[in-house]
Amino acid sequence: MGKHLPNNPLIEAIFEFRWLLHKDTAKNIEYDENYNFLIGLFYNGIKDVFPIRENLPSSQMPAEIIPYVPQFRFSKKEKSWPLVQLGPGILTVNDTDSYAWENNFEDLCCKTIQNIYRCYPDTNNLNLKGLTLRYINALKIDNVNILEYMHNFLKLKINFPQSLFETTEIHSIPNSLSTVFSFPISKPEGIVMYKFAKGKKDNSDALIWEISIISKDEEKINLPTEIGKWLSEAHSIAEKSFFAFSEGELYRRFENV
């Protein structure tokens, strides 16, 4: 998330921009009357950098029945990263192994937002619904008690009553885990969310660890001019969170070749 790590746990970095859709309560749908025009205009604005346009399976469905679901993907070449995705009310920037905040991701997020504001047919109706910056990490935990791992390496302790295991036939090592913590933040105004779940990486058991910064009071965010400011503040929270959890032995493992 900060400097290059030889054993980087990052699976994916995602920036998400959502704008408000019109609601038709009688038909129980949400729609954007400018969306069909936007698709071509947006592509024209980024095709010099992302010439490959891919129709996702969701593009076969009417936009009004799948609000906030990406339908189109744009990339430099097929099956490459980073990439940009567009759908009704949603725009995302995604990256994996090539992720570098200062070298490409921050700038790409800013330019992508500037492009949609430049291309959108009626910017008076392009009203922000929310911004999210999310990092998904995976830590391999083969043959390890996941609760002990979280305590020893992430400094996060989850305790169950010991009598639960001593007086019953319940085993003390969980088969699955999924837990979420969220905390308010003042800069940028919103919340930071930490999600921990047991999953898979390269067919091995892994602890999936997500850090998300989610905006609040969107009317106070002046886009597109303040997108750089929001991204910088959100990234600062995410980076400090990453180091706070991983500081010590876990971070040394990330650094080792």
Overview of the structural elements:
This protein has helices at about 35-45, 100-120, 145-155, 160-165, 225-245, 250-255, and strands spanning about 10-20, 20-25, 30, 50-55, 70-75, 85, 90-95, 130-140, 180-185, 190-200, 205-215. With about 260 residues, the protein is an alpha+beta fold. It has one domain (about 10-255). The strands form 2 sheets. The chain has a 9-stranded antiparallel beta sheet, covered by helices on one side. Helix 1 (about 35-45) packs across helix 2 (about 100-120). It starts with 9 loop residues before the first strand and ends with a helix.
Number of strands: 11
Number of helices: 6
Q: What percentage of residues falls in helices of 4 or more residues?
A: 25-40%
Overall structural domain count: 1
How would you describe the oligomerization state of the chains in this entry?
single chain
| Structural class by secondary-structure content | alpha+beta
Q: Strands of the largest sheet, in order across it? A: 4-5-6-7-1-8-11-10-9
State the order of secondary-structure elements, H for helix, E for strand: EEEHEEEEHEHHEEEHH
Question: Shape from CA axes?
Answer: globular
Cα gyration radius (Å)? 21 Å
Low-confidence stretches: none
CA(first)-CA(last) distance: 17 Å
Q: Which percent band covers the strand fraction?
A: 25-35%
**Mean pLDDT across residues:** 95
